[in-house]
Design goal:
Structural class of chain A: alpha/beta
Shape of chain A: globular
Largest sheet of chain A: 9 strands, mixed
Distance between the termini of chain A: 49 Å
Number of helices of chain A: 23
CATH class of the largest domain in chain A: Alpha Beta
Radius of gyration of chain A: 26 Å
Oligomer: homodimer
Number of strands of chain A: 15
Strand content of chain A: 5-15%
Chain lengths: 600, 600
């Protein structure tokens, strides 16, 4: 890999540290013992994690008089730390390692940082790379996971846990840092418990890095990678909005990453203001069927056609397909047949009559994609299922039907489909992700040195400037919940897991989306956050997920005036009822905008 | 539309003007009469453009003593100018209008700029929008064409030319500025000739704006939009390169915009260093068949597998499919049948036996796409044909065959396909495109005032700083060539056109690509130019197409050392012949890099 000019400039950027990490001697304070959020889960978690459950929270203390002791460099004993990337690559992942490296070396140059090449497989096989200044230099503030790579990322079976344990003992590791999302951090907790049980000296610390942004709980505000992913995607979505508005002839259906949870789709919608977004959580909570979703989009297309608008932008998370009740049931049947060893070619003939009817209704490209071998025990290959094309197909069919039956009187519906997955994931990380990841790297080191096992490195108050960030650690087990599975055959109580957090349908971001939904749908309130900036405007170290930019009052007022002008222009003596309807709808929009403005 | 923080900052950016435009009285000098590049075309062009052919070049003079006369503001008489977006939206298009507006108003606030809404259709229907300060403010340095929009963009038939002529006369336009690519500027030339003939007072000036970058000739260095498109795409391609290198399991097949010419694919390849790029011009000049191209990619996949690499990035222009001789023949047959009114459903049964054999060989999704109604008289709907999926499918089939037959011994081939079309087109324009477009807007105004009819606004020496840019105008007719069509039935001499310039296979950019091709293929010399920057590093007003960044010598030397280490590591007593082969191949790469470095 060669670095471009911008990459080189970025590689020289050194993130700021919060005050608690600027001292040579970092001070930790232990809080109360932690418990799980839902008391009814406590028993199950205690049973699974007897040695690591109930540990206290850790806070890093701010220096009482800042930098007073910075002259007296207290050297730590040399330690050996291993680090491994687990799960999907997220922008900023490299900076966790850079922060960890800088912390380790600044406290004792004889300490060693060992990277495992190729994710958990590298851990099991002990394929190592000693991380040196030279290596770190190339990857500072750079995207991807290519310093170490990754493969399959599970440390779950007895063999896997044993292999990991062997690696840590053979390499005499004092600590192991696991960089990943919900699954990897659940595995980290399990590993920590096993190590505690076997009195292995290696302490395990997890770092919240996942571009889905779904590792969120009372201790963790956001994850490394999510900010970059949303910013890059929001830019591309906005570009398509601009394009749609310029060409005025297509509907863009855009599928975004995000499985059970739709954080990415929600954030991108708030950033770029597309006409419509459908979240998995909405579909699941309202039990919307394929038919419902199709009708909802078609009604929106009709409403826009009445305003003579034949373009639009619609966002969907990739997990949408699984959140639709009847499709979920079908996918579960397919998954079950896969597990029983039935080959893809034979699955369709063994479906239940009901599932078979749904399956046969689908276009052939979707059938093929639904039958792909599953990605894990629980999920189909969502990234390979072109849900956006499927929905566009259903909408087109329905719009054609409405056109033919005469209930819809507009122009023919046209769509273009996009999947924004991989192209954002490899991006240079945003300043926020660089900073957050770098600080988390430092925090991990200090947790290990303090002997914390089964903890997650945490940084909170991220909305504020770095100098007000709060560092600490929280036991992984305190983040666990137990899913009570429903349905026949499933055991009534499952294993404790760190589960992905769903979009909170009562939370502020979703509430904001709802308030604007009507205007976004009709009025093309598109905005373009623009490409990631590293200097000047837009380069602030802020995460968009916590700081949606203030709305532009003047812009709204101008918009209102434009509406009023439009109504004035179209309402003329003898104008048709259609025109009057359009004018009325514009007036309703004006009232809506006014009421939003007055309430802010 | 609402502006984001970055958009607002951008809207306040005022591009610099070259010295020749800074004076209040711009001085023009006329050069020699122009002729077409190929003398054998002259007769045909003279015949078609008797009144506008052979006009002189126009140069804008630099002020002898700069800004001396800036105090004495010489006011121009008030004029009325119309402006229309033709062709696909290109980032920077709005800035042509902003530059034109500023030039008009600064010379006489009573002059009027009238925009036609909805492209050429708006021109015919006289759907106008008077462009005011307020409007211009919202669109300064913003992407898209949404200030005016566009529709179909042809001013060719007698009816269309008459409608345009009527509009210009009814609206009493002194000038009409047509913003577009090769087709629109050919139309502009025709309109200018018609106006000259009918002694219409409206002068016609064209502006080179096309994201394909294929309106290039002795007078025009590059087009507005190309720089932004390449930069945004190169970033996304680089993100995928990083992703490929991190996950090490997929080949990304990426289709880029670019029809007969592959400028975008070439530039993006030079910027981001993917493993392979296939240009239309290479395929056409070497007459590569589908089979050849498939074999070429498969051989590359095998070569990489020998180095234990199972990932890669391959770029294709959307026009590739048409440049393959046998597919071209098939598409021509389909086009012919469409023209004869045969419906898509019946076309396959009426193909010649040869074309039918090829058609039947194709997977069904491509069949469907090839049969879509054509975009124009000459081309299929290239943006709708998923060439990347088709090639990935052919490569997968062939790799599976090789695997089964035992000639290929590596892992299974996996691919993921992308089309980077629309998501880059709506981007905020790069600084270069903002500046270039803005200056072209000013130039257009001065050409109109000087009474130049049938000219293109030109700015040259773009590699240099804006203060050294040279402004002028060149007759559109001097850019024309006459295609001699081959094959039965086609007349031997066609009409004069401004044809898209192909990538010069003897030019420097292509030569550079060729020199690195071997290393790019095997060594993953990926680089990420990063997202568009507007301040700091990477924000220089330079177009990438003319200033590929200098290669990083130290980076290369480090790379070489890494190769040497690798060879040292793998070559051990008793190692297999395969390992020795891999080592040899690494050594060959080292020699190649060394020889490139020593020649630079």
């Amino acid at each position: 890999m060669e670095l471009s000019g911008l990459q080189k400039t970025r590689s020289q950027y050194l993130p700021e540290l919060p005050p608690c990490l600027q001292k040579s001697a970092v001070e930790l304070e232990y809080g109360d013992a932690t418990t799980v959020a839902d008391p009814s889960d406590a028993q199950s978690v205690t049973r699974s994690f007897p040695l690591t459950y109930g540990k206290p929270l850790v806070h890093f203390l701010n220096p009482s008089s800042p930098r007073r002791d910075s002259q007296v460099k207290k050297e730590h004993p040399a330690i050996r730390v291993g680090v491994v990337f687990c799960g999907r690559q997220s922008p900023g992942g490299h900076n966790v390692i850079c922060g960890l490296y800088d912390a380790i070396k600044s406290h004792n140059p004889k300490s060693t940082l060992i990277g495992f090449r190729g994710g958990s497989e590298g851990l099991f096989a002990q394929t190592t790379l000693e991380i040196t200044e030279d290596i770190v230099l190339t990857y500072r503030n750079q995207g991807g996971y290519d310093m170490l790579g990754r493969t399959k990322d599970q440390i779950r079976t007895k063999e896997q846990v044993n292999a990991a344990s062997n690696a840590c003992q053979t390499l005499k590791l004092d600590g192991l840092v696991i960089i990943g999302g919900v699954t990897s951090n659940t595995d980290a907790a399990q590993l920590a418990e096993t190590f505690a049980e076997s009195k292995c000296q290696t302490k395990v610390v997890g770092v919240p890095v996942t571009l889905y942004g779904d590792l969120k709980n009372q201790f963790v505000e956001t994850d490394v990678g999510f900010d970059t992913l949303c910013k890059v995607n929001a830019q591309l979505i906005s570009n398509l909005c601009t394009d749609a508005l310029s060409a005025e002839k297509y509907y863009y259906f855009i599928r975004l990453m995000g499985r059970q949870s739709s954080h990415v789709a929600l954030e991108c919608a708030l950033q770029s203001g597309p006409n419509m977004v459908i979240l998995c959580e909405e579909v699941a909570s309202s039990k919307l069927t394929l038919f419902d979703i199709t009708q909802r989009i078609c009604d929106a297309v009709e409403d826009r056609a009445k305003q003579d608008k034949y373009h639009g932008v619609i966002l969907l998370p990739e997990g949408l397909i699984e959140s639709i009740p009847e499709v979920y049931a079908l996918l579960q049947e397919i998954l079950g047949l896969h597990k029983r060893g039935v080959s893809a070619d034979n699955i369709s003939s063994q479906l239940s009559p009901w599932a078979s009817a749904l399956f046969e209704f689908m276009p052939s490209f979707i059938k093929k994609e639904l039958l792909l071998s599953p990605e894990s025990d629980e999920s189909a290959q969502l990234s390979q299922i072109e849900t956006e094309k499927f929905l566009a197909h259903l909408v087109e069919t329905e719009m054609n039907r409405r056109l033919e039956s005469g209930t819809y009187k507009g122009k023919k519906f046209n769509s273009i489909c996009h999947f924004f997955g991989y192209q954002a994931r490899g991006s240079l990380p945003s300043k926020f992700d660089c900073d957050y990841a770098y600080v988390l790297g430092h925090v991990s080191y200090h947790l290990l040195v303090a002997g914390c096992n089964g903890y997650m490195a945490t940084v909170t108050n991220l909305k504020d400037h770095v100098s007000n960030w709060r560092c600490g650690g929280a036991p992984l087990t305190a983040m666990m919940t137990v899913k009570r599975l429903h349905g026949p055959g499933a055991s009534s109580i499952g294993k404790p897991y760190i589960h992905p957090a769903a979009v909170d349908l009562k939370g502020k971001p979703y509430e904001m989306l709802l308030r604007y939904a009507g205007n976004l749908l009709i009025d093309d309130l598109y905005r373009n956050p623009g490409p990631l900036q590293f200097e000047g405007t837009g380069s602030e170290s802020k995460t968009i997920s916590l700081t949606v930019e203030d709305q532009d009052y003047m812009g709204r007022i101008k918009k209102l005036q434009a509406y009023l002008d439009k109504v004035k222009m179209i309402v003329k003596p003898g104008c048709s009822p259609e025109v009057l309807k359009a004018a009325l709808s514009s007036m309703v929009n004006i009232v809506n905008i006014l009421s939003i403005m007055s309430s802010m």
